[in-house]
Design a protein that fits this description.
17 helices, 3-hydroxy-3-methylglutaryl-coenzyme A Reductase, Chain A, domain 2, 3 domains, binds (R)-mevalonate, Helicase, Ruva Protein, domain 3, 433 residues, Alpha-Beta Plaits, alpha+beta, four-stranded antiparallel beta sheet
């Protein structure tokens, strides 16, 4: 697929103009457009989960201004919270002024865990398991031939001691499994279930759990970006001052778990929205992110921000490095028609590229939040967008929403009753609000 004419100024267009722009950009066809409108059919929904009685829709918006390793991306995001898409697009623009995001990722190595109990000697059991590594990998690789054909599959075994648990000592066997473009839950769970009887035989122990770990610290993505400090200037405040305030805001999260939880929630606002848009398991990403944030024994920020001096001036530098176990084949990514369209808009990337795009979205979202918090506060922008939702909930039509929202904000009275009154008033006076 050739992608050209990156749409700019999407926020200034009407919804249908926006759809036209993205249709041209990503070569969307009638089925794609229908999928954007309708999402799942009832039949598709029924085959996805149990006891289905309906479908639940959320808005799909487009994050813009993403320049990643020199390539431009339009990033589909599914989220219910106003201001996330606008904020990430603004922050991505700030980072493109510093040359765009530089991203990288590890090999897509997942960890499958086997819990071994009733062992008399953990060291001896480990030695036996290490000696049988080739045999164990061969058993693990009896399944999922496609992953192996692509260079993936079971790659290694590692043992970890848990000598002092509430249930006594146990040996945890980690199977390292390269999932290629799959998220890999099925492949990893099949593989650990397959090696469990052999582990029991080798060690004379007893296996209890066999399941992947969502702390995917061998499957990580990294995004970094620079913002020229003058780009951060605001009326009456110079860029150096804003950069320093952002650095201080980050330092707060780095030192305090109460703040870090909210700081990281902001990062996940971006990452989960892309995960949902592309049919990925956002709960798995959440679990991995927060466990990783606590990996050194104290929960902390997933990002690092600093102010640095380069030859041509001062920059705010941000880095996000975190577990991101996402897939681009199988699961809802392929089964959900709208997720397929999101993938098409992204240019059908491989899993590692998708993880890197998500890391860029997470970093940009964090920058947007810190910048707002360290300057005007988060509420001004939120309230503007919240007012639109209130107007919609009150029954405003598409052409009334912005006018009503503006009035609610100017009156500092963002309430549904007031929006309803304004709509009523507009109709009674035959005024087009
Ligand atoms: C709101 O959804 C996210 C923020 O609270 C993140 C943050 O505080 O960094 C604004």
């Amino acid at each position: 697929m050739t992608q050209s004419n990156i749409p700019v100024g999407l926020y200034k267009l009407s919804q249908s103009e926006r759809l036209d722009a993205i249709t041209g950009y990503a070569n969307l066809n009638q089925n794609d457009i229908q999928a954007l409108n309708r999402g799942l059919t009832m039949e598709q929904a029924d085959s996805m989960i149990e006891n289905v009685i309906g479908r639940y829709t959320l808005p799909l918006g487009l994050g813009t201004n993403f320049l990643i390793n020199g390539q431009e991306f339009v990033v589909p995001m599914v989220v219910e919270e106003p201001s996330i898409v606008a904020a990430v697009s603004y922050a991505a623009k700030l980072i493109s002024a510093g040359g765009g995001f530089k991203t990288s990722s590890s090999e897509p190595l997942m960890i499958g865990q086997v819990q071994l109990l009733d062992l008399t000697d953990l060291v001896e059991a480990t030695a036996k398991i290490n000696a049988a590594e080739a045999e164990l990998l061969a058993v693990a690789n009896q399944f999922h031939p496609t992953i192996q054909k692509l260079g993936g599959g079971a790659k290694g075994i590692e043992c970890r001691f848990l000598p002092d648990t509430p249930a006594g000592p146990m040996l945890i066997v980690h199977l390292l499994y390269d999932c290629r473009d799959a998220m890999g839950a099925n492949a990893v769970n099949t593989a650990v279930e397959a090696i469990a009887p052999l582990l029991e035989q080798i060690t004379s122990g007893r296996v209890n759990l066999r399941i992947l770990s969502n702390l995917t610290d061998r499957r990580t993505a990294r995004a970094e970006g620079l913002v020229p400090v003058d780009q951060l200037a605001r009326p009456g405040v110079n860029g150096e001052h804003v950069a320093q305030a952002i650095f201080e805001a980050w330092a707060f999260a780095a030192a305090d778990p109460y703040r870090a939880a909210t700081h990281n929630k902001g990062i996940m606002n971006g990452i989960d929205a892309v995960a949902l848009a592309t049919g990925n398991d956002w709960r798995a990403l959440e679990a991995g992110a927060h466990a990783y944030a606590a990996r050194n024994g104290c929960y902390t920020s997933l990002t690092d921000w600093s102010v640095i001096t380069l030859d041509d001036g001062n920059y705010l530098k941000g880095v996000l490095d975190m577990p991101l176990s996402v897939g681009t084949v199988g699961g809802a990514t392929k089964a959900h028609p709208t997720a397929r369209v999101s993938m098409k808009i992204l240019g059908n990337p491989h899993a590692r590229t998708l993880a890197e795009i998500m890391a860029a979205a997470g970093l940009a979202q964090n920058l947007a939040a810190l910048r707002a918090l360290a300057t005007e506060g988060i509420q001004t922008g939120h309230m503007r967008l919240h007012a639109r939702q209130v107007a919609l909930a009150a029954g405003a039509s598409a052409d009334q929403v912005q006018r009503i929202a503006d009035i609610l904000v100017s009156e500092n009275n963002i309430r549904e009753e007031r929006a309803k009154a304004l709509i009523e008033q507009g109709f009674q006076n035959k005024t087009k609000l």
